[in-house]
Design a protein that fits this description.
Layout lengths: L2 H9 L5 H14 L5 H10 L4 H23 L1
Helix pairs in contact: 1-2, 2-4
């Protein structure tokens, strides 16, 4: 399920909006499958090793986003 429909679905039952907002924001840049836009861009790239290069950058960003979210909690 894409981030937008998942967010709309979870917004109805979420007790707090901040963790949901952080999860949606960070989830989109953490893994290639976290966003439909990531999948489309990687598929259009058609370059060998592009998935690995994407994750070489995105996983450290995911870790920093998680650390920031925990620090601001």
């Amino acid at each position: 399920m894409s981030l937008v429909p998942a967010t709309l679905l979870l917004a109805e039952v979420a007790q707090e909006w901040r963790p949901l907002a952080w999860g949606v924001s960070v989830g989109g840049f953490g893994l290639a499958i976290g966003s439909l836009a990531n999948l489309i861009a990687l598929r259009l790239g058609k370059r060998p090793g592009l998935w690995w290069e994407f994750h070489r950058w995105s996983l450290p960003m995911l870790a920093m986003g998680l650390a920031l979210a925990l620090a601001l909690e």
